[in-house]
Amino acid sequence: MAAPVPTGPGDDASAVLDELSRNFSYWVPGAGNGSLSGAWYRRNQIHLFGVLLAILGNLVISISLNIQKYSHLHLAQQEHPKPYFKSVLWWGGVLLMAVGETGNFAAYGVAPITLIAPLGCMSVTGSAIISVLFLKENLRASDLLGITLAFTGTYLLVNFAPNITQAISARTVQYYFVGWQFLLYVILEILVFCILLYFHKRKGMTHIAILLALVALLASVTAISVKAVSGMITFSMTDKMQLTYPIFYIMLIIMIASCVFQVKFLNQATILYTTTTVVPVNHIFFTTSAIIAGIVFYQEFLGAAFLTVFIYFFGCFLSFLGVFLVTRNREKEHLQQSYVDFGSVPGKQMLDKIQPDSNGLSYGTLPDGSDSTKSQSGEKKEA
Description:
Layout: H1 9-23, H2 38-43, H3 45-76, H4 88-110, H5 113-116, H6 121-134, H7 141-160, H8 170-177, H9 180-201, H10 208-238, H11 246-272, H12 275-297, H13 306-327, H14 330-337, E1 340-341, E2 353-356, E3 364-365, H15 369-382
Antiparallel strand pairs: 1-2, 2-3
Helix pairs in contact: 3-4, 3-6, 4-10, 6-7, 6-13, 7-13, 9-10, 10-11, 10-12, 12-13
């Protein structure tokens, strides 16, 4: 049945409210709620499809990261290494990265932000498993514990995420965009962002909490805009064309701009701090900001029971702890193993190894090139 055509501002507002009431389905007490039962599956088929897309997307991202890492190690072992961007293997990893991010983008269009955002832990844990199989890295006891906690947390948050389904149309996004909750949230976020940016730019403060807080504030806007764009595209494919509305292009511009500045601050953090520090902190900050964005903008916890919300956040805590354990002290172990054999030199027993220099223009230098040069010249004189 076609929706009635609004004739005035009051009718237009009531039409939007009617559409929202049809789009929402809340948690209702009954058999099977709060557990992975047949009734739960029937109510959450579209959500499970989004979860599957997000998990597969994050696993593909893990594979792409390991492929890119392997290409760097392979180039470092060559006598005359070429730039990494000329490697076919490296570009294959980049292509897989794009495929994985596309899966995440599509997942936001069919499932709530509060359900998809925490699944980013699957990328970290998946990378740890793949690195053991693909790069022959050591599997530590903390890795096993972290992976177990991350999987347990994922099970809980997927099972107890608020059972709310929305069809994201242009009118729905417009209604939320001018709502007082979002306007108040945006004002507060802009104020905090300006304060942090002042301390970072004017005072020269580069603490990891400041940099990743800036990333998280931008990430909340990214999560809102990504779900809006993906949801309107999904709605256009299944129901009615939404790409002709100006709000679609406004959210598209917000999505691109927030992603660009988010990457800028994230790169600054990775330059100043180790990956094992940036990855867990950024995951916690990003997931928390995305969940808050879903609660404020899309009202995804509206009508949820207290016990359901509590178990959901407990699942998020377990996934955060799992990511921390998997990434803890991993880079220190890599530094002990990241040596490339120099190879044999005719007439001389060579026991030294090359240490890749991340700050130099080449992949590695001898530990003490001056001493080795002097020893070689002395041997020539004695001969």
